[in-house]
Amino acid sequence: MINLEYPKKFKPLVSQANMVAQELLRPNSRKYDIAEHEYPVELDMLRSLIEGMEDGAGMGAGAAGVGKGDASENGGAPKAEETGTKNGTNLSTALSIIEMCWGDTGLLLTMPGQGLGNSAIAAVANEEQLKRFKGKWAAMAITEPEAGSDSASIRTTAVKDGDYYVLNGEKIFVTSGERADVVVVWANVDPSAGRAGIKSFVVERDNPGLKLDRLEHKLGIRASDTANFILQDCRVHKDNLLGDPEVRTDKGFGGVMQTFDNTRPLVAAMALGCSRAALDELRTLLTDAGFEIDYDRPTAHQPGAVAEFIELEADWEAALLLTMQAAWMADNRKPNSVHASMAKAKAGRSGTDITLRAVKLAGSVGYSENELLEKWSRDSKILDIFEGTQQIQLLIIARQLLGKSSSELK
Fold first, then answer.
1. Per-residue CA distances from 155 to 15, 172, 185, 347, 353 (Å)
2. Pairing state of beta strands 138-141 and 182-188?
3. What is the H or E stretch that residue 3 is in?
4. pTM of the model as a whole
5. Residues 348-406 pLDDT 10s
6. What percent of the chain clears pLDDT 90, i.e. is strictly above it?
7. Residue 139 · residue 182 · CB < 8 Å
8. Which run of H or of E encompasses 43?
9. Residue 131 burial by CB count (10 A; 0-12/13-18/19+): exposed, middle or buried?
10. Cβ contacts of residue 263 below 8 Å, gap of 6+?
11. For residues 409 and 308, what is the distance between their CA atoms, to the nearest angstrom?
12. What DSSP assignment string belongs to 56-100?
């Protein structure tokens, strides 16, 4: 039997995340949308609060909370006597992110200690690295001028030099790159091996070889800084290479790609939070305008605006269930690569559709800066792009369902 309700043990965390969204993120949403690149000082007090939530509840309050399929109540490896299914940190993180992004997506992305790079570390780091980088705010640097959605085309190189690797290349669109403590950089240790040579490295933000080139001005998520970096003879100790240092052509670059199995459900959760904010506001506007939303009547017998609202809600629910499934599978150590892509593809597309149609249904109110509907429509677009575009997700899904390789199905 499938239970589609939120697990009871996560309700306190979800409630806390919603409180933060209501009391801190939503009230400052417009302020930092206008003041792009200005650091949101209001977030500093949240770091200790979130750490307390994680330590006290045993679950993540943001991207730093995910793990390698946390199948036990206490995290880590499941005990032999444990049976049945478990709801762990991946699911709790996704649920809390939905609440936070209901408040503001850009502010969630720039929350100290909660970068997407933290999920990369959680996905492939060894035990020593997990301890060493605990508490660090990690950004993730994958995209390059000539390597966007196709991560296998990365040209940044990492050449072994004694106990160090020397990294050279350029990284663009690094979320929270300027503010983070460390940056997880994807680079190729053996270009002749193709994608199998791609590894991820943790680079300290103050490393002299990691040079900030510029900050981007963006359509949405303006509270979050988006940095471009030049890596010039950037020396990184071998102990900062995440996962297996060996180049194994038989396994491709599956190690670093495990990162996406963790982060794509989180990006889906971001899209769900942003679009739910639009739905909640649209419901209020429709009710204030005298429309009654009646779920017991066929939509064909209701006003067009109400019928469209119910359709959007149903679309949102479908995306939510896919996201919960992908996170749940990670918690139970089930291969979730295709499900993570399904969740990200569905939530990303639904998010942009819901927010834009909410603006349309609200008319001049939706287009005005007096409300946040227009902001949410701008914020939601990035959630359909980063961590793999809509088109790339569909390719990944098709390849896995059809049993095709990337060379067979492009």
1. 44, 12, 12, 30, 34
2. parallel
3. none
4. 0.91
5. 999 999 999 999 999 999 999 999 999 999 999 999 999 889 999 999 999 999 999 88
6. 72
7. yes
8. none
9. exposed
10. 63, 116, 119, 120, 140, 387
11. 36
12. HHSS-SSGGG--S---STTSSSPPTT--S----HHHHHHHHHHHH
Token pair, residue 322, equals 């896919």
Q: Residue 95 corresponds to which amino acid?
A: L
- For residue 216, the SS3 value is coil
The conformation of residue 143, written as its DSSP 8-state character, comes to -
CA distance 121 to 138: 8
Give residue 290's region: left, alpha or beta (phi > 0; psi -120 to 50): left
Domains and CATH numbers, the chain: 8-132 (1.10.540), 138-251 (2.40.110.10), 254-402 (1.20.140.10)
Q: Which two tokens stand for residue 410?
A: 């492009």
Q: What is the reported pLDDT for 254?
A: 59
- Written as one letter, the residue type at 131 is K
* 393: nearest Cα among 343, 350, 334: 343
Biggest CA–CA distance in the chain, Å, is 73
Strand 210-215 to 164-175 pairing: unpaired
Cα–Cα distance between 270 and 101 in angstroms, integer? 6
The answer for 403, left when phi > 0, alpha when psi is -120 to 50, beta otherwise, is left
CA distances from 47 to 53, 54, 114, 307 (A): 10, 11, 9, 42
Closest CA to 102 of 351, 309, 311: 351
Report d(CA 155, CA 165) in Å as an integer: 15
What is the chain's alpha carbon radius of gyration, rounded to the nearest angstrom? 21
The DSSP code for 295 is T
Per-position b or e across 185-204, b if 16+ CB within 10 A of its CB: bbbbbbeeeebbbbbbbbbe
User: Phi then psi for 218, rounded to 5 degrees?
Assistant: -125, 165
CB count within 10 Å of CB 372 equals: 18
Residues belonging to the active site: 387
Cβ–Cβ under 8 Å, residues 65 and 19: no
**Cβ partners under 8 Å of residue 44, min gap 6:** 112
User: Quick one: pLDDT at residue 64?
Assistant: 62
CA distance 218 to 228: 13
